[in-house]
Amino acid sequence: MTENLLQIAYKALDDKRAEDIVVLNMQNISLLADYFIICHANSDRQAQAIAREVQDKAQEHGFEIKRIEGFDSARWILVDLGDIVVHVFHKDERAFYNLERLWGDAPQLDIPTVE
Predict the structure, then answer these.
(1) Cα–Cα distance, 7 to 9 (Å, whole number)
(2) pTM higher than 0.85, yes or no?
(3) Radius of gyration of the chain (CA)
(4) What is the torsional sign of CA 77, 99, 22, 37?
(5) What's the mean pLDDT in 55-59?
(6) Using one digit for the tens of pLDDT, what is the confidence trace for 81-108?
(7) CA dist 11 to 6, 39, 71, 91, 104, Å?
(8) Which residues on neighbouring strands pair with residue 78, listed in sequence order?
């Protein structure tokens, strides 16, 4: 179930041309979620479109959106899907927060895109 949602979210990001998509396995590392998906957009509008696509596709497949934060400012949008948290950064913010380094002990996953 989580792996299915992981693929749905990843494909939604890819469809909206999110850049530098990284999936971190947070199991046994964080109590917040099992997986973080991190990506960035080149504009506020693109960041919002990416977050909206993740929300729409997850709901289409029957998954609940726990909450979305930061949508209006579109600098760092967090889409909480329960076991998976999607972080959509504006490109200027991603390097500043550098979640990949912060959670550097989390293994990165390769998610095959499913057509």
Answers:
(1) 5
(2) yes
(3) 13
(4) negative
(5) 97
(6) 999 999 999 998 999 999 888 888 888 8
(7) 9, 12, 20, 20, 24
(8) 69, 87
